[in-house]
């Protein structure tokens, strides 16, 4: 069983929820979304380290969450994140020990299934990098700067990306270090691995693995919580 580290960037703003509290610290059923998310990972075989990167104002709260949720056999740390998610992950990677795999997961995806975590880890162990996603169900259009459609990609080859994204530790450290050196931005960690010319494999996830971003997502989350099989 490969040794694993978990990184959770948890500095998301709350403005899309029309409230001041950052999304990871909104409470559902008496616990923060971050706590619900952590619960899915703390029992994963081989987990040895957890790093949460958050804003200065929420360091104490995130530390309290970690202290309660993470078992004594797993080391953990809470650090101040960067201005952007990519910077937060890069800072967290500096804290990662010499472990086999790094799992990077959105703080506000509490409905990840444990089997999908294991599926991603297995594929990353074999190939270097694996990400979770679902096939696109809508037709996607590519448009130019003037809003004119220039291409309709084949939907059968398009996937909607989720997390976790799992990488062999030296690979993701190399990708983030090179991006930091060259000031290369990316919307997700897998994009940096692609950028340095390494393959990333897709693993099919679930439509229930939603990212809680907008008020309507909170309503959907309450419905999913009502299903004991999530």
What is the N-to-C succession of helices and strands? EEEHEHEHEHEEEEHHEH
Beta-strand portion reads 15-25%
Mean pLDDT across all amino acids: 93
SS elements, strand count: 11
Number of helices: 7
Main sheet overview: 7 strands, mixed
- Overall CATH architecture: Alpha-Beta Complex
The total domain count is 1
Q: What is the radius of gyration computed over CA atoms, rounded to a whole number of angstroms?
A: 17 Å
CATH class: Alpha Beta
In CATH terms, what is the fold-level topology?
Spore Coat Polysaccharide Biosynthesis Protein SpsA, Chain A
- Summarize the amount of helix as a percent range: 25-40%
Question: Which regions have little confidence, pLDDT < 50, spanning 5+ residues?
Answer: none
Question: How would you write the strand order of the largest sheet?
Answer: 5-4-1-6-10-7-11
CATH homologous superfamily classification? Spore Coat Polysaccharide Biosynthesis Protein SpsA, Chain A
Descriptive terms for the model:
230 residues; alpha/beta; Spore Coat Polysaccharide Biosynthesis Protein SpsA, Chain A; two-stranded antiparallel sheet; 7 helices
């Amino acid at each position: 069983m490969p040794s694993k580290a978990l990184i959770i960037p948890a500095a998301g703003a709350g403005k899309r929820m029309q409230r001041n509290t950052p999304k990871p610290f909104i409470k559902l059923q008496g616990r923060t979304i971050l706590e619900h998310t952590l619960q899915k990972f703390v029992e994963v075989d081989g987990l040895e380290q957890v790093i949460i990167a958050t804003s200065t104002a929420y360091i104490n709260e995130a530390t309290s969450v970690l202290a309660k949720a993470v078992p004594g056999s797993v080391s953990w740390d809470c650090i101040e994140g960067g201005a952007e998610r990519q910077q937060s992950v890069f800072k967290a990677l500096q804290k990662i020990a010499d472990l086999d795999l790094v799992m990077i997961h959105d703080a506000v995806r509490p409905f990840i299934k444990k089997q999908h975590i294991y599926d991603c880890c297995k594929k990353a162990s074999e190939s270097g990098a694996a990400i979770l996603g679902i096939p696109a169900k809508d037709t996607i259009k590519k448009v130019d700067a003037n809003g004119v459609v220039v291409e309709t990609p084949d939907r059968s080859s398009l996937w909607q990306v989720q997390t976790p994204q799992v990488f062999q530790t030296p690979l993701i450290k190399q990708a983030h270090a090179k991006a930091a050196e060259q000031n290369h931005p990316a919307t997700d960690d897998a994009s940096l691995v692609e950028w340095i010319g390494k393959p990333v494999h897709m693993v099919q996830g679930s439509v229930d693995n939603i990212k809680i971003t907008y008020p309507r997502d909170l309503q959907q989350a309450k419905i999913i919580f009502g299903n004991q099989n999530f």
